[in-house]
């Protein structure tokens, strides 16, 4: 039995007091000094892990003012605060051992859009893609781009002066900031915008912190203008944080925002921003130029720039190969056909944008004419081996989507040495990039490191993440060695170490890059934050006696991870490699990634949160000399009854409020829908349901399980018996008072009712036989070749029996001889709830039967996506290659020649709502539905949606009802209630259909039922 984790790192008294006073003074947001929140916000995407004392989530500007004013009190001068947005920093930008002020949870409203004057005013917790989605109907967009646009906030972008693809045309975030509202540490609210000298004089004369700040910054600009001019590199990415070179605008106005942009949370809380907008280019295209050598791609970029593109991005073969093995490839593969006889080692993605098709065609032609005109010798010297063109905003969007995912994908290497960020965003003048990279590569090669590369070649920015196992103390030393070497190399090429992602802990190198100007940065810091309370140790210290953080003195995550025994680390591999890139915080409600985070906006309810918590839990157990993997084995051998008294006692103590860190982990795990979107979409393939099951198994080895778990776990076993007396089951379940009792006693709501249709009788009527050895033995070889076995699952067979029958009917119409596999429990509900021993038994039993059927050479197919996909996922983990091969029915049907049947079907168009597990874990199978419909003369478009909120039995659990409905409202509701969609929608998931039925009282057909309908007219 796992021990109680009674004590973790206690919160310092001064912070507890600080939080207490905040509460008493009416702080409206959330105050979280709990260990779960602290653990989850102890990391970003960097190599560091710094445990904060607590996390606060302000609701509005007044909360920020309260925080600032309190921190000014003498008793709280040692309290430090670090603002945080999406937490996607790659160098510890938002990490602190003080208090995290997470602005993203509540302060995320778009306040005002002015279409005529082309500006928008937002709270800074707004995510960049959220903003652009809201602006789209106005034909406008916020231009600065970044790979993390689906989770990075405007506050984070402003504070790192973010930029990315397209920066040569669109510049950086700073270039689009019109006004800022910032809460300074004395509690004053500073509204800043470029001002002329008269307004400046008025600001200078103010007696408060604002006056002091303005005087300091203005004096620096006046007194050091020449030095600033000489020192700042003339790069697309200049010396971010603090940007002395742009204190005066081109028009000569004083602009405090230049200092605030890129200040990495060290000067104030930026609460609101007014941002400049641009019209969305009407059309765009990408010319994808292939090379036989990555260096050739880099060198060629300068030549390609002559053809006047909007931007050029380069990716190397490593990145390309990683993308090929990811779900993202399905959306872009058509644009990257292989080059016969050649190995593509690099690609330049050359973008053209325009306001008319003619102008776009003209731009593309400039480039393609040059490419077409190449003779053999030019081909040899440039390394170009062909190109393809992707036309239109939709195609371009897909390719940029792939490119955006590239940084994350780099983390998905095999083995323990993982690509990590620390020198990942160098910038040099573009004309030096190729030479710089030759030296950079030599440097990494001299340390025998693997790495992938890509970057914005037009801006001279290179992204590289060397693969290092940070759990190994020897390899950890490379961070210092390589950082120093790369810093020198960038200086040699007149470039920057922090070309894009900000400085963070790398601020250590700032004095070296800023030279004599560094004391001026300190003066600025001192004016804003005299007591070094805001994100201290980054960018600059307020006084010379205080020092910046050093890259090898901040706690590194690997140092924590190495406390977990290797066997345990490997036993929980599906969660251990999360690198915090935050792709699971995807804002888009119509994207499947992670419904529990979307509904709660609590980071502990995200894949990253769950990975961080389970990692910490394993570490805590390891520190108590408990090996979770061994413990699971012992647990399975222990009898249920012998541990009962202890579990009862522990549960009573739990109810009395006894602390155990495992409860915090459990809370986070309970929020998971086990939808598996993380498995398919996380670039690192973090598999929450897998490690969640392992956690639950151990947690309930110590505490009593809720009754509902037994109810759900036994459902598949009870169904065959209950189905014989549907009148009794339905009679008991249907009445409202029974539903209430069930909710109270068993924790289940809206339990589905049995259809009452006898499969045996219906099969007989249909002339379909069960797939038994005897029945198969009667088939001729020809009949066998035409036979397909439909594998049952409890949900479809007992709650949607019609669907089984309709599918069999359709298969017959299409000319096949369908057979139905006898029912055996699949075991997936057991897996979901952590009954892993019982699951293994169920999987073995079921596999034995299915494998015997498969041995006859007949194909097995399943109707229910999540139950069917379990055979290639959960089953594989238990049975390895003995897991039965069961295809999704559309995977098999799409490969059959059924075109002869086409004339039998009436023509219509439909819209597919795919199941989350299916679209994220078997993405190609969604196209299979389209192929199948196309072959039968139907049109099928795929509707982008998030999760429906049901996910197996999640939505039927009373404790999840509110969240389940909220998830439905975030994406599905609008689609299902849209009048234009009436009669057109079809859904593949049993859960999805039952959620629509219970919330909207609408019955959505399965795609096979739609086809049957088209046949029957
Ligand atoms: C896979 C990956 C790809 C990336 N690609 C790019 C890229 O293409 N271009 C790019 O520029 N960056 C990139 N980054 C870095 C990162 O996404 C950006 O720096 C982004 O702007 C950070 O936004 P955030 O909301 O996550 O901020 P956080 O990481 O939470 O914070 C960043 C900094 O801003 C401060 N801050 C945040 N909000 C506020 C506020 N309201 N007031 C005061 N201070 C605040 C924090 O204290 C911190 O110092 C990438 C990161 C990852 C993981
Ligand atoms: S779970 Fe995956 S997507 Fe989320 S932060 Fe971790 S690695 Fe990134
Ligand atoms: S399974 Fe679904 S709900 Fe659970 S963490 Fe993964 S994406 Fe989130």
In what range is the share of β-strand residues?
5-15%
User: Can you list the strand order of the major beta sheet?
Assistant: 15-12-14-13-18-19-17
Overall helicity: 40-55%
The overall strand count is 28
**Subunit arrangement of the protein:** single chain
Overall residue-averaged pLDDT value: 94
Hetero groups in this structure are: flavin-adenine dinucleotide, iron/sulfur cluster
Please tally the helical runs, counting DSSP H or I stretches of 4 or more residues: 49
Shape field: globular
- Please identify the structural class as seen in this structure: alpha/beta
pLDDT < 50 stretches: none
Q: In angstroms, what separates the terminal alpha carbons?
A: 61 Å
Question: Can you summarize the main beta sheet?
Answer: 7 strands, antiparallel
Description:
- The structure is a single chain.
- The chain is α/β, with parallel strands linked by helices and 1017 residues long.
- Helices cover 45% and strands 12% of the residues.
- The protein is built from 49 helices and 28 strands.
- The strands form seven sheets. It has a seven-stranded antiparallel sheet with strand order 15-12-14-13-18-19-17, with helices on both faces.
- Helix 16 packs antiparallel against helix 18 (478-492) and helix 26 (628-637) packs across helix 30.
- The longest helix is centred in the first third of the chain and has 23 residues, at 209-231.
- It is globular and about 95 Å long.
- The mean pLDDT is 94.
- Bound molecules: flavin-adenine dinucleotide (FAD) and iron/sulfur cluster (2 copies).
